[in-house]
Amino acid sequence: GDVYKRQEYMGDFITSIMKRRYEKNEESWKSVEEAFLLSTRNVVALQVYIVPSEKGITWLNQMIECIEETSLREIAIICIEGIISIYEKQKEKLGCDSYRYLQNCIKKEPKIIMQLWDMIGQSPNDRKVVELVMRADSMMPIVLSSCVINKLLDENMTQKIAAVNQFALFWKLAAEYFPLFVPFSTEPLSLFHMIDFLNHDHPLVRHSSKNWLAESTRKLDHILDPIINRLLKKTSDEVYDSKTGRLIYTAPYDTRLVVDAFKRLRSILQASKNLSLIHICRCRRYAVCRSRWSPYH
Q1: How far apart are CA 166 and CA 187, in angstroms?
Q2: Are 129 and 119 in contact (CB under 8 A)?
Q3: Mean pLDDT score, 96-115
Q4: Does pLDDT of 282 surpass 50?
Q5: Rounded to whole angstroms, what are the CA distances from 270 to 102, 206, 251, 273?
Q6: Over the chain, what is the mean pLDDT?
Q7: C-alpha to C-alpha distance for 156 and 84, rounded to whole angstroms
Q8: What integer is the mean pLDDT of 269-288?
Q9: DSSP letter string, 264-296
């Protein structure tokens, strides 16, 4: 009973946050933010003890509503972090019905991730936003990639250019704050769209994507590897691993993957004429070479 009361308290707390517009210079603001963060973490952790039901996720619906309506980005970020942590809890506790139930509910609300993506470059705490996008990329790569692609494929040219610049900003911030993180490595379709924009008909889209590529040369392997990995992609239904260690294709190989891959590689080389294939191969394969080259080379 105490667990359910805590859930109700969390819902009431969220509602009160939405109704009142706190000023950040208020003395109480910091304590409100800290209390909200602790309450969110607690209610997510308590779900392991709760039987999943529609009635029991009122707090989740209120969190989603808060993300959409609150004018306080810090509160929205806390709510999004709580929702992403549900996915992480589900991964830790594979047999927990409650987290699985909540995860299925969240899948129906992709606008949560869209809201997070829109915060890039708009929040005073960009590092936290990028960290949450990174966690979303790990936990729900298809949802994140779909949201980014929807932005990039906007028919309004002004919105499309803004989406390309936002992608470039995220790529830059991710490399700055989390150098080892490879964005969209699991679901690289949004990255492929950026590469395809190098030959876009609209000059501003083409220019923006070329700027992104030029600023990404220090992490060029993060762009090239997904293209190569797509060529090597295989499933257990398509490939048989023989006892002698040979891989035998049991289904026709999709040659369109080869055509698309080489088109994108050609686009990258044409857009970056100062790069050489020797330089790319060396820097991708050898740690010693990486340590010797200038980071701006």
Answers
A1: 18
A2: yes
A3: 70
A4: no
A5: 47, 13, 34, 6
A6: 75
A7: 30
A8: 56
A9: HHHHHHHH-TT--HHHHHHHHH-HHHHHHS-TT
- Which residue's structure tokens are 């997510």? 44
* CA 190 – CA 184 distance, rounded (Å): 8
Q: Quote the distance between the C-alpha of residue 64 and its chain's center.
A: 18
The tokens for 2 are: 């105490």
> Which pLDDT band, with edges at 50, 70 and 90, does 28 fall under?
low
Is-contact 91 139, C-beta < 8 A? yes
Q: Are 33 and 75 in contact (CB under 8 A)?
A: yes
pLDDT at residue 286 tops 50? no
Task: Give residue for tokens 């790569």.
Answer: 141
**Under a CB-based contact definition with an 8 Å cutoff, are residues 118 and 162 in contact?**
no
CB environment 17-50: b (16+ within 10 A), e (fewer): bbeeebeeeeeeeeebbeebbebbeebbebbeeb
Q: Residue 82 corresponds to which tokens in the numbers above?
A: 């709580």
Q: Is 125 left (phi over 0), alpha (psi -120 to 50) or beta?
A: beta
- Alpha-carbon gap, residue 218 to 214, rounded angstroms: 9
